[in-house]
Amino acid sequence: MFDRKITWQGNSVKRRNSAFFLFVFMGMLTAFGPFVTDMYLPSLPAMADYFSASASMVQLGLTFSMLGLAAGQILFGPLSDKYGRRKPLIWAMILFLLSTVGCIFAPTIEIFVLLRLLQGIAGAGGIVISRSVAADKFKGRNLAKALAVVGAINGIAPVAAPVIGGTVLKVMSWQGVFWILFVLGLLLLVACLRFNESLSRPKRSKQKISKTLSLFKPLFANKKYMYYVLQMSFAQGLLFAYISASPFIIQEHYGFSSFAFGLLFALNSVAIVGGSAFSVRFGSQEHCVSVSCRGMVICSILLACALALNAPMAVFEALLLVLLFMLGLTFTAAVALAMSCAGSQAGAASALLGAVGFLFGSIVSPIVGLGNIMISSGMAFIVCAAGSSFFAVLANRVSRKSAVKRYGGN
């Protein structure tokens, strides 16, 4: 179990945040991304009418928010290593509140899209710094447990966000969705003010802010870390392939209603949360990643065959549940392993890990719509699972070589 109180040293005064507060706080911050990107999806048709814009132009708001989520992690990761976690978090929340108000009163779709980019950048601050806080507070298996708890809290966000957005639209205009986001940002700002710094001054980066990008150089040279980043990114690519393809496969091919799709989407999200929670039962996180990657490859091949052969919905859903459970396993274990390689560069490491994952997602998402989606999505599953497994093998090789060098002479 975790300690009930978490301590840090700063200005010669010892302060404390409870473990419960930290877990809820980190979970809310990591859930910020899905809420920023997904909550307004049901509002797209209404926004097209409001701005007298095409659907594709309105959808640019989603694209730019994802780009912001990627770029923002590169920005806030090094900033949090240099200035601590608390101040950049407060800056991010203030930027989010201002950009959200701007979205509500945006006079044109072009200005709205630009403000969505700023919203994504601000939301990224919460995502990247939450992982850094976990790495500051916990090590080894405790880090994996902390990330599993956060992952479980975060698991409901992709399900809850569009449901909340759709519910709000029944009683309010699309601006009401953004007012909800504003309130969420305000609550997080209050939590940020209560949060006590987790990175003490002696451990902060001494690099000048103009050279923050240089903080990434040691990470690029860290083979084990980069292998886990790529392993995790291919796994995220698989997740985005599922998210992009599942509405069309379940609703258009199998003929389910949008309500039934929502229920299945919720069930599938529970599988990811279950995998995340189960990951701590493995003796080592390396073993967890190995098992999950093998499972992803097998399930992806079977899913591709099921889609190509027009298998019954029950077969497709059963295979999908197992695949998403395997994703839950690898998400927690791979993040813990990657972050454990970073040492004092937790902020930059978390930033790079998140940014590359979102970039993979932005690449994979449109690919599944090319040609016959039943074939293209199956191929995307296989390629992403195989890529994830390949880099997991490379990371394990680096670990074995390090162990041989360390103990070989004894």
Summed up, what is this model?
With about 400 residues, the protein is mostly helical. It is about 80% helix and about 5% strand. It contains 15 helices and two strands.
Please specify the SSE layout and strand pairing.
Elements: E1 5-10, E2 13-18, H1 19-38, H2 44-51, H3 55-83, H4 86-104, H5 109-137, H6 140-154, H7 157-171, H8 174-194, H9 217-221, H10 223-253, H11 258-278, H12 285-308, H13 313-340, H14 346-367, H15 373-407
Antiparallel strand pairs: 1-2
Average pLDDT metric: 80
| Biggest sheet architecture | 2 strands, antiparallel
**How far apart are the first and last residues' alpha carbons, in Å?**
34 Å
Secondary structural class? mainly alpha
Strand order of the largest sheet: 1-2
Q: Please give the number of β-strands.
A: 2
Share of β-strand residues: under 5%
Radius of gyration from the CA trace? 21 Å
Low-confidence parts, pLDDT < 50 over ≥5 residues? 1-14
Number of helices: 15
Description:
The chain is about 80% helix and about 5% strand. The protein has about 400 residues and is an all-alpha fold. It has a two-stranded antiparallel sheet with strand order 1-2. A hairpin with a 2-residue loop joins strand 1 and strand 2.
Keywords for this structure?
410 residues, mainly alpha, 2 strands, disordered N terminus
